[in-house]
Amino acid sequence: MGQLEEKIIAVTGAGGGMGKVVVEHLLEEGAVVIGLDINTDSLSSIDHHNLRVKQINLLEESSIKEVFEEIDDEFNRLDGLVNAAGIAQAAKPITEVEPSEWHKIMDINATAVFLTNREAVRHMKKTENGSIINIGSVSVTRPRPGLQSYVASKGAVEAFSKALALETAPFNIRVNVLHPGPADTQMLSQFSSQKEGEVELNKDIFSESVPLGRLIKPNDISATVSHLLTDGAQIITGAVIHVDGGRSV
Ligand SMILES: NC(=O)c1ccc[n+]([C@@H]2O[C@H](COP(=O)([O-])OP(=O)(O)OC[C@H]3O[C@@H](n4cnc5c(N)ncnc54)[C@H](O)[C@@H]3O)[C@@H](O)[C@H]2O)c1
């Protein structure tokens, strides 16, 4: 029997490099998983009776509210939320960053975390039970030059999650932050400067920055996410957990 049997868990960014592996892991542990993404194509290869796939646009409050209402209508409860959606920033000096770029990064990486957490908490308060994992980034503690807007958005996720953890603790709703180190997904290349001749993946540079000597794999992330959703983690809240091979030290 899996450790998440019969738990209802929503995952944003479910079609992404980390999100899809998280979805697969949670299904293996027996959860009913609602996979949410603006692009759900990659989820079509998962054939599992406990998977529901819903399209969501995290830039639109109405889309977020609609999806969480559908979840409520179908299940009448929500045990877990994993926020794995996000967008990267191509490294560039602040003098070249347009406000529109800043706003888009903040809207998807930070405001959508507020909105999805708000909807999840509405449901979780009814059962006085819930576990939320918001994915941040090691860049909050170890910023790289040129990623100022992305780092700010992830810093907001950390501060918000800690504040919400205190606020929702009386309702037995746990909120934790998971900061991945540089991870082997398509997003990694998007952090490189997009200038001609500089669009190199730099995988070696990223791997060398990790004391354990390799990039973080989606499996590393899903293992910790899964644990935080289980009853084995019932006393863990407000924690900032680095899954980064020592990069943050
Ligand atoms: N890959 C890394 O090196 C790395 C490092 C640290 C933190 N992170 C963070 O980990 C999380 C997962 O990253 P990943 O590597 O899986 O990236 P990814 O690009 O593979 O996946 C991100 C997913 O978010 C979805 N998304 C983007 N905008 C959306 C919107 N408006 N509405 C709904 N969905 C939307 C995308 O469709 C995509 O499936 C992100 O929050 C990212 O910032 C990644």
Radius of gyration: 17 Å
Strand order in space, largest sheet = 3-2-1-4-5-6-7
In CATH, the topology is named Rossmann fold
Share of residues in strands:
15-25%
Which CATH class?
Alpha Beta
Count the beta strands.
7
- For the residues shown, what is the average pLDDT? 95
Relevant CATH superfamily: NAD(P)-binding Rossmann-like Domain
Give the SSE order as H and E letters. EHEEHEHEHEHHHE
* Helix-residue proportion: 25-40%
Helix and strand content put the structural class at alpha/beta
Large-scale geometry: globular
Ions and ligands: nicotinamide-adenine-dinucleotide
N-C termini distance? 37 Å
Q: Could you give a short account of the major beta sheet?
A: 7 strands, parallel
Provide the low-confidence segments as ranges.
none
CATH architecture: 3-Layer(aba) Sandwich
Helix count from the secondary structure assignment: 7
Count the domains.
1
Detailed description of the structure:
- The chain has one domain (8-243): NAD(P)-binding Rossmann-like Domain (Rossmann fold, 3-Layer(aba) Sandwich).
- It is built from 7 helices and 7 strands; from the N terminus they run βαββαβαβαβαααβ.
- It has helices at residues 17-28, 61-75, 99-127, 148-168, 187-190, 203-208, 218-229, and strands at 8-12, 32-37, 51-55, 80-83, 130-135, 173-180, 240-243.
- It has a 7-stranded parallel β-sheet, with helices on both faces.
- The longest helix is centred in the middle third of the chain and has 29 residues, at 99-127.
- The protein is globular and about 50 Å long.
- The structure holds nicotinamide-adenine-dinucleotide (NAD).
- Nicotinamide-adenine-dinucleotide (NAD) binds at residues 13, 15-19, 37-39, 56-59, 84-87, 108, 135, 137, 180, 182-183, 185-188.
